[in-house]
Amino acid sequence: MRPFDRRRVILGVTGGIACYKSVTLARLLTQAGAAVDVILSRAAREFVGAITFEAVTGRPVAPEILAPGHALAHIRLARETDLVIVAPATADLLARAAQGRADDQLTAVLLATRAPVLVAPAMNDGMWSHVLVLQNAQVLRAIGHTVLDPDTGPLAFGEGIGPGRMPEPETILAHASRLLETSTVLAGRKVIVTAGPTREALDPVRFISNHSSGRMGVALAAAAWRRGADVTLVHGPLEVPLPVGVGCVRVHSTAEMREAVAAALPTADALIMAAAPADFGAATVSAQKLKKSGATPVIALEHTVDILESTRALRRPGAVIMGFALETTNIEAHAREKMQRKGLDFIVANDATEDGAGFGVDTNRVVILDARGGRDTPPLMPKTQLAEVLLDHVIAALGTAS
Ligand code: CTP
Fold it and tell me: In a 3-state reduction of DSSP, which class is residue 296?
């Protein structure tokens, strides 16, 4: 099932240059399964034609509020929708919405609906920093709307760089999926996820690392955030974009990852160690670049710190700890031994030799073992879907722990 299947979304578009990005947003929402009803303000129609949105969503754009034959369109739209997004929201829309005006289709819908409302302002940086605009945004937040902060970046032609850009459509989509999420059991819970490899320096330009892409950890962080958690993602270099909404801590070495985990762990409800920290580092890191000339260097290695084991005493009582185990032989036996040695509630075991599972691919097949002897064997599935399965286990354990 796609994330927005069977969901109705109203996309209100008001008249700013960011309108062109709303077309992409309408497409992303539609591709994710939503039935998207677009409402264009009068000014928005000057920027992008209704026909463009109709072609992308496959649905008619909503009529104007006083259009003959559509007297109650705003009531019907407002009632049937699961979510209202306003993107871009101009300064004028913020002002009219904050005042409770209903002088066009979009503001009427905003008053009539009881669905969650997501507002993505976009305007010139000078306008966004005006006290009246900030005050209007504050009023909308106070009544429960989610008002995103605009991105900082290049503004309209000749206007330089500043805060005022509409957040990217993918970012708005992620916020929309969080607002539509029915399982918000992680609201108020603090979850740490680690992702990606770490790197152990050999000299100023070389390192030891592994093939971890960070996909599994990023999928877990995104899923936990969508379910309402306050997520800290501690990560090394990633091959995938950072998830939206999540507090990210970039680290390089295993020792740095340990420090970041140790700092967050005492207040965390769950730690999901999906990272693949480098297990070995050079016993002595060369201060200068190792030269090719002369004898081939022999580099003595030593073990890095084990993050799960060395932070055990920092865990809050009742915190749920999930580790991963990438194995090539005796998968379950090795994984169980690791679960015990590292004091875990769960271990997610992977066969590193299996096609379509493990490092660098979008799918994974795992065996989930728990400390009470439980065993779950979900089929091969996308890592984004597996993330939901793993979180279900963490949530069930949190429920019994608290
Ligand atoms: N892990 C850790 N600290 C390390 C290495 C790994 O906390 N220095 C975590 C991983 O994030 C994972 C779990 O421990 O959740 C198991 O990692 P894995 O690499 O499978 O096991 P290792 O303990 O490194 O043992 P081995 O490499 O011998 O299989």
Answer: coil
Same domain, 12 and 102: yes
Residue 82 CB partners (closer than 8 Å, separation 6+): 7, 8, 9, 115, 180
What band does 313 get if pLDDT is binned at 50, 70 and 90? very high
Is 48 near ligand 1, meaning CB less than 6 Å away? no
- Is the same domain home to 329 and 219? yes
Distance in angstroms (rounded) separating the CA atoms of residues 239 and 241? 7
Identify the domain containing residue 377 by its residue range. 190-401
What is the model's pLDDT at position 344? Answer: 98
On whether residue 1 sits in a domain, the answer given is: no
Asked if 195 and 235 touch (Cβ cutoff 8 Å), the reply is: yes
* 53 and 173 co-located in one domain: yes
Residue 261, ligand 1, Cβ within 6 A: no
Residues 134-168: tens digit of each pLDDT: 999 999 999 999 999 999 988 877 878 889 999 99
In the DSSP assignment, the letter for residue 315 is S
**Ligand 1 pocket test, candidate residues 194, 304, 338, most atoms within 8 A of CB:** 338
- Any idea what the CATH number is for the domain that residue 73 is in? 3.40.50.1950
Percent of the chain at pLDDT exceeding 90 = 85
What CATH number is attached to the domain comprising 311?
3.40.50.10300
274 lies in the same domain as 305: yes
**The total number of structural domains that make up the chain:** 2
For the residues 4-25, what does the mean pLDDT come to? 96
Distance CA 222, CA 242 (A): 9
Q: Which of 192, 234, 307 to mutate to test the pocket of ligand 1 (most atoms within 8 A of CB)?
A: 307
Q: Say how many Å lie between the CA of residue 97 and the centre of ligand 1.
A: 52
Tokens of 217: 């950890």
Q: Which two tokens stand for residue 72?
A: 């109650």
Query: Are 280 and 249 within one domain?
Result: yes
Mean pLDDT (whole number) for 321-333: 94
Tell me what the mean pLDDT of segment 17-39 comes to.
Answer: 97
**Is there a domain that residue 185 lies in?**
no
